[in-house]
């Protein structure tokens, strides 16, 4: 009950790989659980224990669990819209999230992300900047091109991403 997800994945992997005879019912139950647990583990939530209540999870933990669910569903042709999936994450966790979103894309899905994090923007195929400014001062598309054109442009975000401008 106090086992972490990472330990569960290791245990189930050992059980499945050390079984000489196929156990069809167990296989049909364990394989999907193992796949989902492995995805959650890859997203950096390997420390979550099985007895932990959902009400104790942070917003970013819940968001990554939702992402794991979508990866586990193996759907294609879906448009996903994500709002700041990296908020509150460490650099390592950001890279895991980027990797997971790239997997969703590789499955034949379209991913639209509202994001301000530099590494995430750098990993994007296409960048859309909306502004100038925010709230009542924003709302116009000021840039919409592939990333390679974005970093060469004079749009405000590109100036900060490339270091031509710095936050004081």
Explain what you see.
This protein is of the alpha+beta class. It has seven helices and four strands, in the order H-H-H-E-H-E-H-E-E-H-H. It has helices at residues 5-17, 24-45, 59-73, 91-106, 118-122, 147-150, 156-161, and strands spanning 79-83, 110-114, 126-131, 140-146. The strands form two sheets. The chain has a two-stranded parallel sheet. A two-stranded antiparallel ribbon has the order 3-4. Helix 1 (5-17) runs antiparallel to helix 2 and helix 2 (24-45) crosses helix 3 (59-73). The protein starts with a helix and ends in a 7-residue tail after the last helix. The model has no long low-confidence stretch (mean pLDDT 87).
Assembly state: single chain
- Strands, total number: 4
Q: What is the ordering of alpha helices and beta strands? A: HHHEHEHEEHH
Across the major sheet, the strand order is 1-2
Instruction: Tell the overall outline.
Output: elongated
Coarse structural class: alpha+beta
Number of helices: 7
Low-pLDDT stretches:
none
Radius of gyration: 20 Å
Strand content: 5-15%
In whole angstroms, the N-to-C terminal distance is 49 Å
In percent, how helical is the residue content?
A: 40-55%
The average pLDDT is 87
Report on the biggest sheet. Answer: 2 strands, parallel
Fold topology:
Elements: H1 5-17, H2 24-45, H3 59-73, E1 79-83, H4 91-106, E2 110-114, H5 118-122, E3 126-131, E4 140-146, H6 147-150, H7 156-161
Parallel strand pairs: 1-2
Antiparallel strand pairs: 3-4
């Amino acid at each position: 009950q106090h086992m972490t997800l990472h330990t569960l994945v290791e245990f189930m992997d050992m059980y499945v790989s050390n079984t000489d005879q196929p156990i069809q019912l167990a296989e049909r139950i364990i394989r999907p659980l193992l796949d989902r647990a492995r995805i959650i583990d890859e997203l950096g939530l390997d420390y979550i224990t099985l007895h932990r209540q959902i009400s104790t999870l942070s917003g970013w933990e819940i968001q990554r669990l939702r992402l794991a669910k979508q990866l586990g569903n193996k759907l294609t042709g879906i448009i996903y819209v994500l709002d700041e999936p990296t908020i509150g994450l460490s650099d390592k966790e950001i890279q895991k999230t980027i990797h997971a979103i790239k997997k969703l894309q590789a499955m034949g899905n379209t991913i639209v992300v509202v994001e301000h994090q530099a590494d995430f923007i750098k990993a994007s195929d296409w960048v859309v900047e909306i502004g100038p400014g925010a709230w009542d001062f924003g709302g116009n598309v000021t840039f919409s091109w592939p990333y390679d054109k974005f970093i060469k442009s004079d749009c405000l975000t590109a100036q900060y991403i490339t270091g031509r401008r710095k936050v004081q």
